[in-house]
């Protein structure tokens, strides 16, 4: 019989206010095998850990149960403390009496009853625990960053500067991301391209960084320290090693009707194109859907024009397989579709634009060379209305429930830039609240109101109507004055909600990383591990984790890089020993387990088995312990009950259920 110690934590008043901790300790003491039980204010504190270690040594404990917060919070802490006192760390069990008990119950009597049951279940389980030993696997000293926006570039630069190889995979033909489309950045109003392009150049020139642009991650296998990734390098129809980036081909291309993505469709581009002047790599890509040669077999003007023979119409996609120790998701954001926001006339009036379109209109390298004109007739507007929170902070199914976080500040920026360059334009902003919680952010917003005379109105816009004279009529409410307003205007700018890039969900599935209900990647812990995903070896950088501005993105990119460096610095990693194991005599080799294993940890082997005195060769499931993450999916999929998880065996789970039902 095990000699078990039970330690009940108060967690200050977090647990003790709803659970009678001394009653839990007293009830635990009555359980078979329990030789010590006590409660303490903070078990995770130094004094609490010392109490545990002393009891292990003095009472000769062979297993312990900590009744405390979630194992996600402090399991590692308690395992380390136990190990330091000579107890195998896998002889430690946590009964979660905080998140699963005190935080969700108000009635102390009921809370205490439930806490006692959870403690009893953990005691029953620890009776059946066996000491486990972690194995070791080597670490591949290279990182993969998925996404080549500012988040991905900064993460890659920081990792590379520490001396590790990094690959950046970017799905579009150039790195730079959304930041490359911006004109100026808040709250300093410095030129976005001026601060971004040197970083793009640094990334391209860094000897430790390899860029895969116009490429996508197609398959991810493996586990922390040892990922194997297939990258699809899409055919640009250009021989990169030959192309000099002269751009002559793009001037000759007769196919000129495709919306220019970089300018948000405000002008057109050719079928062979370089996204923008500072694109990296600065070579063209042929858009095969728009190319006359690919559609009809004719044209080929670019090929005839290219002096170095760099056009290759027969180029095929290439699959490149690379190994990595760590992966960083930096897939960024996109703005939501405005299809379901017809009240603002976005799809009908060219003079209703998004904020990102305004960025391009205001940019000297944009479709109007920085001239602010109405897209409908190229005349200067006299009045402009900005509508905040379009699709953000809503309750209906067409809206996002969250705040997109950047819109208040970029609208203040736009308003200031317009009033600065065109003082004759009247600028009105309709808002729900103005949110400016950042360094110098509130001062920036106040400058827009006080120094630039921007007319901020607290209120909602009901609808925008097109009028016969081409102007727009905005119907809105002014909540502070309790008035209904009808405002004539020339242009309307929508601060459209942001959402994760559409590639994020597929990537999360490949990485077995979790996402929230809005498809943002979730962190391992929102406060203590904000740049790690719950999947070991997968890290998060930038807006793929949640809305954020550029300074926050860069800070998070640095933090993700620091975590990756910490991992790549190690030569070996300890494996989780709580892995699946197939019982030879029960396994029928049906393959059900390998079909459900998200990590590809199960293979099959022909093996000789002695079953009831009969020796025969059978097809058996074999678990690769280095790859298995102990998720347990296979144990429930196995129809013959052959798969079991060390540390979470069927016997242990049933013992817990029995203890609760007793
Ligand atoms: S493909 Fe040829 S023509 Fe086009 S940019 Fe490259 S070198 Fe110049
Ligand atoms: S527990 Fe089973 S399904 Fe889960 S990773 Fe291990 S082998 Fe795969």
Summary keywords:
662 residues, alpha/beta, 5-stranded parallel β-sheet, binds iron/sulfur cluster, iron-sulfur, flavoprotein, CoB--CoM heterodisulfide reductase iron-sulfur subunit A family protein
Notes on the structure:
With 662 residues, the protein is α/β, with parallel strands linked by helices. A five-stranded parallel sheet has the order 10-7-6-18-29, sandwiched between helices. The protein is globular and about 90 Å long. The model has no long low-confidence stretch (mean pLDDT 95). Residues 579-580, 596-597, 599, 601-602, 623, 628-634, 645 line the site of one iron/sulfur cluster.
Topology diagram in text:
Elements: E1 4-9, H1 13-16, H2 21-29, E2 34-40, H3 46-59, E3 63-68, H4 71-84, E4 92-96, H5 98-102, H6 108-127, E5 136-138, E6 142-146, H7 150-161, E7 165-169, E8 184-185, E9 190-191, H8 192-205, E10 209-212, E11 215-223, E12 226-233, H9 248-252, E13 258-259, E14 268-269, E15 272-273, E16 285-286, H10 292-296, H11 301-305, E17 318-324, E18 326-329, E19 333-335, E20 352-354, H12 355-362, E21 383-390, H13 407-421, E22 426-431, H14 441-450, E23 455-458, E24 461-466, E25 472-478, E26 483-489, E27 491-496, E28 498-500, H15 504-511, E29 538-540, H16 550-568, E30 572-574, E31 580-582, H17 592-596, E32 602-611, E33 614-623, H18 633-637, E34 643-645, H19 650-661
Parallel strand pairs: 1-2, 1-3, 3-4, 6-7, 6-18, 7-10, 18-29, 20-27, 21-22, 21-27, 22-23
Antiparallel strand pairs: 5-30, 8-9, 11-12, 12-17, 13-14, 15-16, 19-28, 24-25, 25-26, 31-34, 32-33
Helix pairs in contact: 2-6, 3-4, 6-19, 7-8, 7-16, 13-14
This protein binds iron/sulfur cluster (SF4) (2 copies).
One iron/sulfur cluster binds at residues 579-580, 596-597, 599, 601-602, 623, 628-634, 645.
């Amino acid at each position: 019989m095990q000699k078990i110690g039970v330690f009940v934590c108060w967690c200050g008043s977090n647990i003790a206010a709803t659970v009678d901790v001394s009653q839990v300790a007293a009830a635990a003491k009555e359980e078979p095998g329990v030789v010590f039980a006590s409660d303490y204010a903070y078990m995770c504190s130094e004094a609490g850990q010392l109490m545990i270690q002393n009891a292990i040594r003095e009472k000769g404990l062979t297993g312990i149960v900590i009744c405390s917060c979630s194992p996600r919070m402090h399991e590692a802490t308690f395992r380390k403390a136990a190990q330091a006192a000579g107890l195998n760390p896998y002889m430690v069990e946590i009964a979660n009496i905080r998140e699963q008990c005190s935080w969700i119950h108000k009635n102390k009597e009921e809370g205490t009853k439930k806490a006692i049951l959870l403690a009893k279940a953990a005691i029953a389980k620890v009776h059946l625990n066996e000491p486990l030993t972690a194995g070791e696997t080597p670490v591949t000293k290279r990182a993969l960053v998925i996404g080549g926006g500012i988040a991905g570039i900064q993460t890659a630069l920081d990792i590379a500067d520490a001396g590790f190889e990094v690959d950046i995979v970017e799905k579009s033909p150039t790195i730079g991301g959304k930041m490359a489309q911006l004109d100026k950045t808040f709250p300093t109003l410095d030129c976005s391209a001026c601060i971004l392009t040197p970083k793009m150049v640094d990334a391209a020139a860094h000897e430790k960084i390899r860029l895969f642009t116009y490429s996508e991650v197609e398959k991810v296998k493996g586990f922390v320290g040892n990922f194997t990734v297939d990258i699809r390098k899409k055919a640009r129809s250009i021989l990169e090693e030959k192309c000099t980036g002269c751009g002559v081909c793009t001037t000759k291309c007769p196919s000129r009707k495709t919306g220019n993505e970089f300018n948000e469709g405000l002008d057109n581009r050719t079928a062979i194109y370089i996204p923008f002047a500072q694109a990296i790599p600065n070579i063209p890509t042929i858009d095969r859907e728009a190319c006359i040669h690919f559609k009809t077999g004719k044209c080929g003007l670019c090929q005839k024009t290219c002096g170095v023979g760099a056009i290759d119409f027969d180029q095929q996609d290439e699959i490149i397989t690379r190994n990595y120790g760590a992966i960083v998701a930096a897939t960024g954001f996109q703005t939501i579709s405005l299809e379901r926001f017809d009240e603002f006339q976005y799809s009908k009036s060219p003079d209703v634009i998004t904020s990102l379109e305004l960025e391009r209109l205001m940019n000297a390298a944009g479709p109007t060379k920085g001239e602010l004109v109405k897209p409908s007739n190229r005349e200067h507007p006299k009045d402009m209305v900005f509508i905040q929170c379009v699709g953000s902070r809503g309750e209906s199914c067409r809206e996002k429930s969250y705040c997109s976080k950047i819109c208040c500040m970029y609208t203040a920026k736009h308003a200031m830039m317009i009033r600065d360059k065109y003082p004759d334009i009247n600028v009105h902003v309709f808002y729900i609240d103005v949110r400016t919680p950042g360094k110098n952010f509130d001062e920036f917003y106040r400058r827009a109101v006080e120094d630039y005379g921007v007319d901020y109105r607290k209120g909602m816009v009901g609808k925008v109507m097109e009028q016969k004279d081409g102007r727009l009529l905005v119907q809105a409410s002014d909540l502070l004055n309790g008035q209904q307003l009808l405002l004539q205007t020339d242009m309307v700018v929508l601060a459209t909600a942001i959402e994760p890039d559409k590639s994020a969900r597929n990537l999360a599935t490949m990485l077995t990383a979790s996402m929230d209900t809005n498809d943002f990647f979730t962190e391992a812990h929102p406060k203590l591990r904000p740049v790690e995903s719950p999947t070991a070896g997968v890290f998060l950088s930038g807006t793929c984790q949640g809305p954020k501005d550029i300074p926050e993105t860069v800070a998070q990119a640095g933090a993700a890089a620091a975590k990756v460096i910490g991992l790549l610095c190690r030569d070996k990693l300890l494996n989780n020993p709580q892995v699946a194991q197939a019982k030879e005599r029960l396994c029928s080799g049906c393959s059900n387990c390998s079909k459900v294993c998200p990590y590809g940890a199960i293979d099959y082997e022909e093996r000789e088995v002695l079953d009831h005195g009969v020796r025969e060769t059978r097809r058996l499931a074999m678990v690769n312990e280095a790859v298995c993450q102990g998720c347990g999916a296979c144990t429930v999929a196995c129809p013959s009950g052959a798969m079991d998880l060390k540390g979470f065996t069927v016997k242990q789970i049933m013992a817990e259920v029995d203890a609760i039902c007793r």
